[in-house]
Amino acid sequence: MAPVAVVVGPPGAGKTTVGLAAAALLGVEFADTDHLIEVRAGKPIPEIFFDDGEPAFRALERAVIAETLGSFEGVLALGGGAILHEGTREALRGHTVVFLSVELSDAVKRVGLGVGRPLLSINPRATLKYLMEERRPLYASVATHTIATDAREPDEIAAELVALLKNAG
Ligand SMILES: Nc1ncnc2c1ncn2[C@@H]1O[C@H](COP(=O)(O)OP(=O)(O)OP(=O)(O)O)[C@@H](O)[C@H]1O
Ligand SMILES: O=C(O)C1=C[C@@H](O)[C@@H](O)[C@H](O)C1
Ligand SMILES: [Mg+2]
C-alpha cells in the first residue's frame, strides 16, 4: 500500500489546496500530515509549537509520515518542513513525489500574514525567503515530478498533477 502521490513544497505552494483537488479528480481520498498531526496531538499546530516546541512537532511529524506512507492509498500532502528530516527523505524513495514549486512573490501573497503557520508569525516574507532557499534542494531531491505553480489556478495545477500520474502509470 502506498499513496498515489505525495505532495511536497514550501508553505504557500498549495499542497493542501491542489492535493485536495487532485484527489477529487482521481476519486481517491486526500490526507494532509499537518491535519493528521493535529488530530493526534488534539490541538492545532500553533499550539503544538507553543506548548511542546518545534522538536516535539517534528517527532510527531516523522512518526505520522512513516505510518501514513505505508498505509494510505490516496493523495498525501506533507507539511512544508517534513523533508528536513533525512529519514523522511529516505522513506520517500520509491514513492511518486510531486514538488509544487513557487517563487517567493506568489508564496508571500498566498500565506499573507502567516496566520496558523507558527514559523511565519514574525516577518513572514524574510522567513519564507530563507526557508525556501534552504529547502529548495531538498524538495528537488525527493521529487519524481515538479510542477511550477506561479500565476496558475489550483484546478489547472491539479489537472496537470493527475495527467502526469496517468502518463507515469
Ligand atoms: N495556485 C494558487 N493560486 C492562488 N492561490 C493559491 C494557489 N494555491 C493555493 N493558493 C492559496 O494559498 C493559500 C495557501 O495554500 P495551501 O494552504 O494549499 O498551501 P500549503 O502548501 O498547504 O501550505 P502549508 O505548508 O502552510 O500547509 C490558500 O489560501 C490557498 O487558497
Ligand atoms: O514549513 C514548515 O516548517 C511548516 C509548514 C506547515 O505545513 C506545518 O507543518 C508547520 O507549520 C511547519
Ligand atoms: Mg497545507
TrEMBL record:
Keywords: Amino-acid biosynthesis, Aromatic amino acid biosynthesis, ATP-binding, Cytoplasm, Kinase, Magnesium, Metal-binding, Nucleotide-binding, Transferase. It holds the Pfam family SKI. Binds 1 Mg(2+) ion per subunit. It catalyses: shikimate + ATP = 3-phosphoshikimate + ADP + H(+). ATP binds at G12, A13, G14, K15, T16, T17, R117, R152. Catalyzes the specific phosphorylation of the 3-hydroxyl group of shikimic acid using ATP as a cosubstrate. This is Shikimate kinase. The gene is aroK.
